[in-house]
Task: inverse folding
């Protein structure tokens, strides 16, 4: 009886340890960007709800989206795909159109919704990594 309980305890803890590993760990990259959002080069996002721009930063770059609804008004996502988790597999607008609401990974072809970063289709099982945004006096701050 004692060896049966011991075996059950060993199997239980082994299963617990294996199930606690997180396959969804995304590389943490320091982000602290400031964007003068009212400058002409950012007109596509400043004056266009759901317009977006790509900037450098993060692991694979950052996409800034004018969400058109919230008080802050802007969303920032990591461009590195959450499935591939590297700087060469990045998301961009499907078909390259600035009016498209679908973002697609150039490696695994997973598709994400621009509205909330959620997975729309493909092998990715995690939404796009989202950064904090704060708008103050025409300057958009993007941090993690």
Result:
């Amino acid at each position: 009886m004692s060896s049966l309980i011991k075996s059950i305890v060993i199997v239980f803890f082994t299963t617990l340890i294996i199930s606690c590993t997180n396959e969804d760990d995304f590389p943490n990259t320091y982000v602290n960007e400031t964007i003068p959002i009212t400058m002409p080069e950012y007109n596509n996002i400043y004056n266009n709800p759901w317009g977006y721009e790509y900037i450098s930063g993060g692991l694979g770059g950052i996409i800034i989206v004018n969400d058109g609804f919230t008080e802050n008004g802007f969303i920032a996502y990591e461009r590195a795909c959450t499935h591939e988790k590297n700087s060469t597999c990045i998301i961009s607008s499907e078909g390259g159109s600035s009016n498209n609401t679908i973002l697609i990974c150039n490696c695994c072809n997973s598709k994400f919704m621009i509205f909330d970063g959620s997975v729309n289709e493909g092998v990715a099982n995690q939404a796009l990594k989202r950064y904090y945004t704060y708008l103050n006096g025409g300057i958009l701050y993007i941090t993690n």
The helical segments are 2-19, 43-46.
